[in-house]
Amino acid sequence: MKGRPVPMRTILVDGKPLPDILDEAMIHAVVHGFYGRIREDALLGPVFNAAIAPAAWPHHLDKMCDFWSSMLLRTGRYEGRPLPPHLAIPGLAEEHFRRWLTLFQATINELCPPEVAELFLDRALRIAHSFRLAIAFSRGENSMEVHPILQDSL
Question: What is the Cα 150 distance to its own chain's centre?
């Protein structure tokens, strides 16, 4: 029995259709560009390079591409728990997240049209706040004192 073809599923993010220009190639460019900056950064480079062995970087980059593909394209490819490795980094603080967001914003502004950069940054800001809350909680700190890092402050 033949029916009508299944229509293409429209991906909605925050109630708006996902821009057609956002695809796996753009995600790959963002992830690789961003982590290239991270690895060279005076503040974050030592943190990431201590946590990820040189031979493990290709796997990490693939995993981060899967993460962002799942987040924005709803592919479901990411299987993992991103928070535990961050909880294990001693001394991870607001300054690290603020720098992470600044480098991320510079990367997406360079590589993406504004409507796609906005999607990426919105998710990154949410992730940073969620991780900061979890880190404060795991350290027994008052998570009520953890305020979101806002785009305007980057």
Answer: 15
